[in-house]
Amino acid sequence: MSDTTTTIADLKQLVQAFVDERDWRQFHTPKNLSMSIAIEAAELMEHFQWIASPEREEEIAQHDRDAIAEELSDVICYALSFASTMGIDIADSLRDKMKKNAVKYPADSFRGRFR
Fold first, then answer.
1. Cβ(75)–Cβ(37) under 8 Å?
2. Which CATH topology does 8-88 take?
3. Domain-by-domain residue ranges, the chain?
4. If the chain, 115 residues long, is cut into consecutive pieces of 10 residues, what is the mean pLDDT of each piece?
């Protein structure tokens, strides 16, 4: 499986099967899942906390790549479970959000800038 051959539906099913095998659906409420997303995102951020230079950031990113990938996977697992619980179609939601972002941040006005 890779990003080029795996669908979002495949990933949702993988996570849901894991959850169902453990009878955890009862704990996967929107509140608990949204909190879990935030917690795992904070654990991802910890890898980069207190880094003062881009060179050091790159060094840490390469050295801790596996641990960083695991934290990112935790965020994605909880996000996929959240989407399933809430009945959110991720592809549709992301497309809609990118359309809104394109209006809010037109490329001609924001190219190379964040403000």
1. yes
2. Helix Hairpins (1.10.287)
3. 8-88
4. 94 98 97 98 93 85 91 98 98 98 95 85
